[in-house]
Design brief:
2 domains, Elongation Factor Tu (Ef-tu), domain 3, 7 helices, 34% strand, single chain, 298 residues, 18% helix, 17 strands, alpha+beta, six-stranded mixed sheet, Gyrase A, domain 2, six-stranded antiparallel sheet
Length: 298
């Protein structure tokens, strides 16, 4: 197996266990994707929104044993647990932080999915006492693993993957233009459709109601998206997150996460069109060139 297949632990990610006989129905009424599709061979990507349809949390949902697990930002996991707990009422569910039991790992590189006989976003299988699945957002991102902490990485080494660090995975993600939680989506402000969640399989348009569904549907069907989160090539030092993007004297967006000559920026679409005609977009002293990802459909 080629060493171009890499893996990296993602220490910024944690795991919330949702157990109990009502676990599917409980999540189904809250999150943006169809939880009934989750099984031992299928994982999904979803979000929890405010009642006004603004971003709160994103996560993968997958099944392991008799529980569902939400892989999400570890630093914000207690808040996610608290917020979900507000909706428990009489539902027969329990919520527990499982981050001490499991580690979250990404695997990527040419043929990474085939190395585990997986194909297509969200396809999953048991692996080394945990689970492996093709990234539910975009197959080009590679694989996600939930592995028992006491097992180390021997299973990945045996499968032909070579270890690296999470910065290498971050460069891979940025090159594909995929957002990373609250690093790229402003809490209680961001709209999912500005951030590619439709194309990245984070929304099911046929499922029943969920928190924030009305505004999300209205944004889609009335074509109200005027900004998009896009990768930008950066000439100069990568600006800090929050740096304003300027078109002449006009503010047209802001920088989000970035490193090594590429960043994500939330940009007005008319400014993207102006840049395509040669108008300079600047963030501080850095010049930006928007790059539409191949998966984006706007």
């Amino acid at each position: 197996m080629s060493s171009t297949q890499l893996y990296a632990e993602l220490p910024a990610r944690g795991v919330l266990e949702v157990a109990g006989e009502d676990r599917v129905a409980f999540l189904q009424g809250l999150v943006t994707n169809d939880v009934t599709k989750v099984a031992s061979d299928c994982a999904i990507f979803a979000a929890l929104l405010t009642a006004q349809g603004r971003y709160l949390f994103e996560f993968f949902i997958f099944a392991l044993g008799d529980s569902l697990y939400l892989e999400t930002e570890r630093a914000r996991l207690p808040d996610l647990q608290r917020r979900l707990g507000l909706y428990k009422l009489r539902s027969k569910v329990t919520l527990a932080d499982a981050s001490a039991r499991f580690r979250v790992v990404a695997g990527w590189g040419d043929g990474a999915d085939r190395a585990l006989s997986l194909s297509g976003e969200g396809t999953a299988r048991p692996f080394a006492g945990g689970i492996a699945f093709v990234d539910s957002r975009l197959a080009a991102l590679g694989l996600r693993f939930l592995l028992p902490r006491d097992a180390g990485f021997t299973s990945l080494d045996a499968a032909g993957f070579a270890g690296t660090d999470d910065a290498a995975y971050d460069r891979h993600r940025l090159a594909l233009g995929v957002p990373d939680g609250s690093r790229d989506l402003t809490i209680e402000k961001a709209l999912l459709l500005e951030s590619g969640f439709d194309e990245l399989h984070g929304i099911d348009w046929q499922k029943g109601c969920y928190m924030g569904q009305e505004l999300t549907a209205r944004t889609k069907y009335r074509a109200l998206v005027k900004k998009r989160l896009l990768p930008v090539a950066v000439e100069g030092a990568v600006p800090a997150p929050g740096t304003l993007v300027m078109l002449g004297n006009e503010e047209v967006g802001e920088i989000h996460s970035g490193r090594d000559g590429v960043a994500l920026a939330l940009l007005r679409l008319d400014a993207v069109e102006a840049a395509e005609r040669g108008a300079p977009l600047l963030a501080g002293t850095a010049r930006l060139t928007p790059q539409k990802p191949s998966w984006a459909k706007f």
